[in-house]
Design brief:
The protein has a single domain, classed as 3-Layer(aba) Sandwich (Rossmann fold). 33% of the residues lie in helices and 25% in strands. It contains 11 helices and 9 strands. Strand 1, helix 4 and strand 2 form a beta-alpha-beta unit.
Length: 256
């Protein structure tokens, strides 16, 4: 797997906590599947056996925001120091002890082997698939590794207008389509559940569409001028009355 440093460097948009929160609202509003993917994941976890959790690419604590059951310890790893305070704030709602480590993955993670019952990587593993050997090391023998990732088809609507060559390479580092084969190199038991969804913007949602594209601009600019993408998609929205983006994801469950 090729680690795309340029796009990972451009993940700075994820450091804007308030913007990320606003985008989460837009995703909820525009999603045709109204069930939160985190609720599906939570129902797959044996919480009575979970005491220590690690979140790889934790961001501001998006996954932790949805948790309700108390556990003993949560650690988050992210490359952006700005995500530290909001992550710890989210985690401390459900744990007595929360730690944030600023690390640009893949890199050594200084926890001892078999440290965690649960490891989560939500919409981030395609940035650092090289972390998988360490993830296996850190996971307890009966622990669970959960990965939520995109389908490679998520770019198809945009690729009708633009060539997202570099962004496609990133998604293909670990996608719904190839993630199972990649995980099987490190874990003996791998299952998955698909999460079918699409984002639908209609006339009247122009401001939400603009903000959504602005949020993606640091990734888009590797391939195309983000303002051109925004202009094109707004024009299509006005012409067609709606634009729809594939948002199909896959939840992987891996054990040693």
């Amino acid at each position: 797997m090729i680690y795309n440093c340029n796009v990972m460097d451009n993940a700075k948009s994820y450091s804007d906590y308030r913007l990320h929160r606003e985008i989460s609202k837009i995703l909820r509003n525009r999603s045709e599947n109204k069930r939160d993917v985190r609720d599906i994941v939570k129902n797959m976890i044996e919480w009575d056996k979970t005491r220590r959790m690690l979140d790889l690419g934790c961001g501001y604590g998006w996954f932790e925001d949805a948790l309700e059951i108390k556990i003993d310890f949560i650690a988050g790893i992210d490359s952006l120091k700005e995500n530290g305070p909001p992550f710890v704030g989210s985690a401390k709602r459900v744990t007595r002890d929360a730690v944030f480590k600023m690390i640009t993955l893949p890199a050594p993670i200084d926890f001892s082997s078999d440290s965690f019952d649960l490891i989560v990587s939500a919409y981030s593993l395609y940035f650092f698939p090289g972390v998988l050997s360490d993830a296996r090391r850190l996971l307890q023998n009966e622990g669970l590794f959960v990965v939520i990732t995109h389908s490679e088809t998520m770019l198809e609507e945009g690729e009708k207008y633009f060539n997202f060559k570099n962004l496609r390479k990133v998604i293909e580092n670990f996608s719904a389509e190839n993630g199972g084969d990649i995980l099987k190199k490190y874990f003996s038991r791998v299952n998955f559940v698909d999460y079918q969804n699409s984002l639908l913007f209609r006339r009247g949602n122009e401001e939400e569409l603009k903000l959504y594209i602005d949020f993606k601009r640091e990734f888009i600019r590797e391939d195309v001028d983000p303002d051109l993408v925004k202009e094109t998609m707004l024009r299509e929205l006005l012409r067609k009355g709606e634009v729809c983006f594939n948002k199909n994801d896959r939840i992987f469950l891996a054990r040693k």
